[in-house]
Amino acid sequence: MGGIRERPQSLREPAKQSPCSPCRRSNVWTRHYLPPCPVTYDFCMNSADSSTERSTGRRPTLLLLAIMDQQQLASEAARLAPLIDKYAKVLVRDLGSNEDLSALEFDLAVVLGGDGSMLRSAHQMGRRQRPVLGVNLGKLGFLADLSPDEFLAQLPLIAAGQVGGAELPIRQHVMYECTVRRGERVVAEWLGLNEVAVLAGPPFAILDIDLYVDSELATTYSCDGLIVSTPIGSTAHSLSAGGPILRQELQAFVISPISPHTLTVRPVVDSAERVYELEVREPHPGTTVVTDGRTLATLEPGDRVRIERSEACFKLVAFPGHTYYGTLREKLGWGGRLAGKKSTS
């Protein structure tokens, strides 16, 4: 069972008025129970579906996503689409168009590119998340970890929802909702996967940021910025700021200050069932809120940046042979000893 948390505001639907509307003066909000994102479940086209496909002619639908104004991605999408069509119905969409993907009907999204493309796809699917498989054509590929050749080799089994004789598992991950409130008014909002960062901005002097957890003042950071990250995002901006690596399935957030002016501050890991609010009483002219690498809003005195777990969960295909610690070693260079040191045993 999940803990008590606040009722999130929809990012796709207009807000509904309720007799239990929040009282902003006392900073107390209506709460309800929300179960955590399940760790795994089976792909929608499993072995039972395969027999149905033979009798009814239904084929799974794969959504092929790429940023089409990048020539490499557009060329790869054009190459892969007819190959996918041999095993599944294929839809092709431009991630760069910011289309609302929640309205489309499909079984699996295949994202071409890097981790930035994966973040775009998660945001554009909104609250109606579907399983995602990443084909890496970027630099790091922490989330998009299949090569094009690996994808094509496994395509028949992927379309059937099976790899290695077993049903293809999906792992679900925490997503967040961020709202920027100016008094009673919401001036910006975002559904995201990695992190929310408040950055000092020009003139680049030190910034004081108040952190509230479930309406209680936790502390005030004197720093260049503050990051609130999901477990998926813990290997991104938060890691660069000295934050810890969290296993991706954890139900938690990481609070990591950027260049704090103190000898004692440490990153904090807390439950995803908490609600986090950041307030900058005296922001700089360039103090901004950045969500998953995109500028969301410029802050004014008294604005509150609110981060909470979303009801939506990011659904990532857990491909056999690609393990979490293997990815840390191979793509982030993580290790417990100096490179090149030989074992004496």
Which helices and strands, and how do they pair?
Blueprint: E1 4-6, E2 31-33, E3 40-42, H1 47-56, E4 61-66, H2 71-84, E5 89-94, E6 108-113, H3 115-124, E7 132-136, H4 148-160, E8 162-163, E9 166-167, E10 169-182, E11 185-192, E12 195-199, E13 207-213, E14 216-223, E15 225-229, H5 237-240, E16 252-258, E17 268-271, E18 276-279, E19 288-291, E20 294-298, E21 304-317, H6 324-332
Parallel strand pairs: 4-5, 4-6, 6-7
Antiparallel strand pairs: 1-2, 3-10, 8-9, 10-11, 10-21, 12-15, 12-19, 13-14, 13-18, 15-16, 16-17, 18-21, 19-20
Characterization of this structure:
Strands 3, 10, 11, 13, 14, 18 and 21 form a 7-stranded antiparallel beta sheet that branches. Strands 17-16-15-12-19-20 form a 6-stranded antiparallel beta sheet, with no helix packed on it. Strands 5-4-6-7 form a 4-stranded parallel beta sheet, with helices on both faces. Mean pLDDT is 84; it is low at 1-33 and 39-56. It has 6 helices and 21 strands. It folds into 2 domains: 40-168 and 318-332, 3-Layer(aba) Sandwich (Rossmann fold); 174-312, Probable inorganic polyphosphate/atp-NAD kinase, domain 2 (Tumour Suppressor Smad4, Sandwich), CATH 2.60.200. The protein has 345 residues and is an alpha+beta fold. It is globular, with a radius of gyration of 21 Å. 17% of the residues lie in helices and 35% in strands.
